[in-house]
Amino acid sequence: MPRSFLVKTHSSHRVPNYGQLETQREANSSCSACEELVGSCHPPDEEPPSTPSDPLPPWDSTSAVACISLPLLPHHGEALGASGPEPQKTSWVGPRAGQAPSVPLKDSFTLPPLLVLPTRWPPILGPDGALDKRLRAEGTPRAPGSFECIHCHRPYHTLAGLARHQQLHCPLPAGPAFTCRYCDKEYASLGALKMHIRTHTLPCICKVCGKAFSRPWLLQGHIRTHTGEKPYTCPHCSRAFADRSNLRAHLQTHAGTKKYRCPICSKAFSRMSLLARHEEVGCCPGP
DNA sequence: CTGGGGAGGGGGCCC
DNA sequence: GGGGCCCCCTCCCCA
Fold first, then answer.
1. Where is the C2H2-type domain (predicted)?
2. What is the DSSP letter of A20?
3. Contact flag, residue A211 CB and nucleic strand B, below 7 A
4. Which nucleotide lies closest to A130 by the C1' atom and the CA atom?
5. Whose CA is nearest the C1' atom of nucleotide B7?
6. pLDDT value for A166
7. What letter would DSSP give residue A283?
8. Could you tell me which residues come within 8 angstroms of residue A209 by beta carbon, excluding any fewer than 6 positions away?
9. What are phi and psi of A195, to 5 degrees?
10. Strands A40-41, A186-187: pairing kind
11. Residues A270, A253: contact at Cβ < 8 Å?
């Protein structure tokens, strides 16, 4: 399932304004966990309370920090728009502004969103033939058969894992939506919202250049740009990369196959972004 | 205009 | 519930 389909939004998400967030970070205190890195990481003190039932969150609009809203919907599934009104609240996350629509071309769409798999799953190969760890991680049990999805019969090792999975079938069956005050995105769980809020508060700060990041591991990756560390090496040409995703993209250059093809001129591209740019420059002029 | 690297965003899963 | 790690994806830049 495309990650974009896991969250609703009222508008295209934009990159947070680092400048506007600077003042918030200054008010935060340091986090010892991230202090061990080059930068500092502050737990977002504006995060919501641990329980939605807390009457007064420790933040408010006057402190210019995030907040959640709890719509009083007895059956929130209606608010999801699966069968109910509020179509303006159910628009899927689309391409960013200025970006050619490319949803049907995304890698994610080449994968069946919800596979019905046997209890003992065979290796799942992605479009490039590599083991698709995303699908495996989503449902592969260590002790198959302990818990099974009533919808697709996927086995799950833990009840928690099954519960999370079943939200894909019945999102927000009776619970409230958690809405980010910054961008109005809605999330099914408080934890997901907390994670999202970090993308606004950017609590992890590089001590070298002052740049802020939402998560410590993003900061770690950034620190490699200062240290020059490149732990990921291409097995074909021994070229090293600081980021695993970039190595993966590089491996496509060795694959010799171009997965993305222009529907008009049939020209193939190794990356979706190249195809999108190809469309933007006029091969496939839109209406 | 294309190919590719660098850097980063963001959500999911496991522990 | 949080941290770590995974993944896909995007933008920017340069050759």
1. 147-169, 178-201, 204-231, 232-259, 260-287
2. H
3. yes
4. C7
5. A222
6. 56
7. S
8. A226
9. -60, -40
10. unpaired
11. yes
* Two structure tokens written together for A259: 């997965």
Tens digits of residue pLDDT in A214-242:
888 888 888 888 888 888 888 888 888 88
Interval A86-134: pLDDT, tens = 333 333 333 333 333 333 323 332 323 332 323 223 333 333 333 333 3
Q: What confidence score (pLDDT) does residue A270 get? A: 77
Question: Residues A102, A96: contact at Cβ < 8 Å?
Answer: no
Decide if A7 contacts A90 (C-beta within 8 A).
Answer: no
As a residue count, chain A comes to: 287
CA distance A191 to A50: 9
**Neighbour tally for A223: CB within 10 Å:** 19
What pLDDT is attached to residue A10? 33
Token pair in block for residue A1: 């399932």
Nucleotide minimizing C1' to CA distance for residue A192:
B11
Residue closest to A203 by CA, chosen among A225, A191, A218, A221: A218
Q: Which two tokens stand for residue A162?
A: 């099954």
What span, in angstroms and rounded, lies between the C-alpha atoms of A272 and A270?
Answer: 7
Which protein residue's Cα is closest to nucleotide C3 at C1'?
A: A216
Tell me the two tokens of residue A93: 């996350």
Which amino acid is present at A114? L
* Residue predicted with more confidence, A220 or A137: A220
Which of A172, A211, A218 has the alpha carbon at shortest distance from A195?
A218
Residue for token digits 């990369």? A241
Measured from the Cβ of residue A131, the count of other Cβ atoms closer than 10 Å reads 11
Tokens for A60, please give them: 């408010």
